[in-house]
Automatic annotation (TrEMBL):
Tree of life domain: Bacteria
Domain named Peptidase S8/S53: residues: 41-329
GO cellular component terms listed in the entry, alphabetical order: plasma membrane
Family from the record: Belongs to the peptidase S8 family.
Segments of this protein annotated with the region Disordered: 1-20
UniProt keyword list: Hydrolase, Protease, Serine protease, Signal
Protein's UniProt name: S8 family serine peptidase
Organism name: Stenotrophomonas nitritireducens
Amino acid sequence: PPPAPPPTSPPPPTSTTPQPAMDAHLALTNAKAAQAAGFTGAGIRIGVVDSGVMRNHPTLAGRVVANFSYVDPRSNNLAVDDVVGHGTTVAQLAAGVAAGQWPGGIAPGAQIVSARIINDERPKDDGSGQGNEVTGGLGMTGIHNDLIRAGVRIMNNSWGGLYWTRPTVTAQIAAEYRPFIAANDGLVVFATGNESRANPSDMAALPSQPGVGGSLPAADLERGWLAVAALETANPSKLADYSNACGVAKNYCLVAPGTAAFVGPNATASNLSYYYGSGTSYAAPLVSGAAALVWQAFPYFDNNLVRQTLLGTATDLGDPGPDAVFGYGLLNVGKAVQGPAKFDWGE
């Protein structure tokens, strides 16, 4: 089994994080315009590689079409779909339906495939402050094959905590993602991480990681890869203090609001509870949901064209064009479902 990574490290709580409007994640990303035009993500499957997804959650009931678990049953409670609650929150931001006061996620017509890789207990850091070093492949090939067989086109990854220093590792990890991107024409979406760094986590910026002799053995994955950093929801022209910036991934990176309201992971239809939280973990699924809307609108697009559409329609922030802070800028779902906006990709 793969090393069980943690979800993106939760950012330190601050007393200054204001409670977001219930619909801030929809309003700031212009998703309401896309939904008003009839786009829901119907027919598209999003893989949530996370801590599991509560299949009976009021925002997701009947929509989790496959439920895979890769965690050790001796140290994890498999009687509960999602002990941590993280994956359920990520899934509803991508694809939840409205419940009570909560207006739903970006793609309420999409289906969810859950791949549980995050343990119920957070792993200990190896002392580096970067999580844990990996010295070879992650053992994800079988997981990705399961997602491919389940019909997943978009793979959301709101986790981190792995890094590597050996240049041989990049090619090994890239080989595990290549079938999903190249053969399956899938799109990988990765949260940049919450360590306030200038660059994303090694995993989120995999296409840019060096290999042996200064090579870039994962560069071909960029056609199916998006990194997502987080904006301050209350000040959406500012990168969140905790967010890793787009950095080396700027050419395949964009930003979305990081503080969002959601329905509690253990809520039931008759007992709804509302929470809000912050992190790049919550920005990434907004992009995954947006990708589902674009693919519904343009089912003949390949992964690269969906990716280019999301990047090229983003609202530019910071320096003109893609920059090392915001990448291409703020996700604009209403514009994305109208198709590509930029045709000068240097390819």
